[in-house]
Amino acid sequence: MDNATAQAPVSTNTKHVTFRIWRQDGPDAPGHFDEFRVPYGKGANVISCLMEIQRNPVTTDGRRVSPAIYDAACLEEVCGSCAMNVNGRVRMACSALIDRIIGDGEPIITLEPMKKFPVSRDLAVDRSRMFEALKRVKAWINVDGTHNLGPGPRQSPGDHTVMYKLSTCITCGSCLEACPQVTIDNDFIGAAAISQARLFNMNPTGKMNSEERVRGLMGPGGIQDCGKAQNCVKVCPKEIPLTTSIAVMNREVTKQVIKDIFFDLGDEKKASGGPG
Predict the structure, then answer these.
(1) What is the mean pLDDT of residues 18-43?
(2) Do the strands 108-112 and 16-24 form a parallel or antiparallel pair, or are they unpaired?
(3) Mutual orientation of helices 242-271 and 191-202 as an angle, nearest 10°?
(4) Torsion angle defined by CA atoms of residues 212, 213, 219 and 222, in that order, rounded to the nearest 10 degrees
(5) How far is CA 82 from CA 33, 53, 85, 172, 229, in A?
(6) Of residues 225, 271, 263, the one with CA closest to residue 246
């Protein structure tokens, strides 16, 4: 069967949705758009339409091409892997319903990879910078040697409520994608890691390493690079109070800087023989 006849006949009675999808073979390869038409289905989301295109990857001009590559796993807004730009706005593709997108008056749905991360292929990107940022703020609890110490410290209901909300971060990258301070070639740590530093510093056991996390937010690419645009909190699919976390950790960094200044002054006085 040649390319011209590879596409199934289109019924004039069936409503279709046109997808304009970014195609790119690798990080340094040139990119282009391919257009596909898929039958409209009530309740369909972007991922289900991409699956339909995978089954029959024939463009609107009759070319059979390789299926579009994208990341997806849970399909219920938990894994964070399917974040992409849908009509110019970062969203989770699994919860981006076609009815709502078309309802915005957009006859063609354009899918592009996030632009603040290197493209792996097509719509899939490399989120390594997010995981490196989590390492920088030591976003974990050291529990070695604590298994035989009995129950941990109690948490107040208020702290528990805040911590639970912060813990719902799915590392999707939407906050970095929307942030004007983040570029593909800079090292700004971003809202997600800042908020996770707050989460682990609130943990009764995590407080033992709180200074290390605060110091992880200092230096090049640290919290001081935040421009307070508040785009991050607007696009977060889990509605995490990211700007509140940034404000809280900004205060912690300021306190640490003041502490360091006083310690440095004290060391200078001792070195000069003055009163400590």
Answers:
(1) 94
(2) parallel
(3) 70
(4) 180
(5) 19, 16, 10, 8, 24
(6) 225
Structure tokens at 97: 């319903």
Residue 249: phi and psi, rounded to 5, are: -75, -25
Beta bridge partners of 22: 33
Q: What would the pLDDT profile of 185-232 be if each residue is shown by its tens digit?
A: 999 999 999 999 999 999 988 998 999 999 999 999 999 999 999 999
Q: Output the pLDDT for position 107.
A: 79
This prediction has a pTM of 0.86
Torsions phi, psi for 65 (to 5 deg): -125, 175
Give the CA-trace dihedral at 185, 175, 134, 78, to 10 degrees: -130
The residue type of 98 is I
- DSSP code string of 160-229: HHHHHHHTT-----HHHHH-TT--TTS----HHHHHHHHHHHHSTTGGGGHHHHHHHTSSTTSGGG----
Q: What's the mean pLDDT when you consider all of the chain? A: 90
Q: Hey, how many other C-beta atoms are within 10 angstroms of the C-beta on 225?
A: 15
Q: Is the pLDDT of residue 11 over 50?
A: no
The alpha carbon dihedral of 7, 8, 9, 13 has a sign of: negative
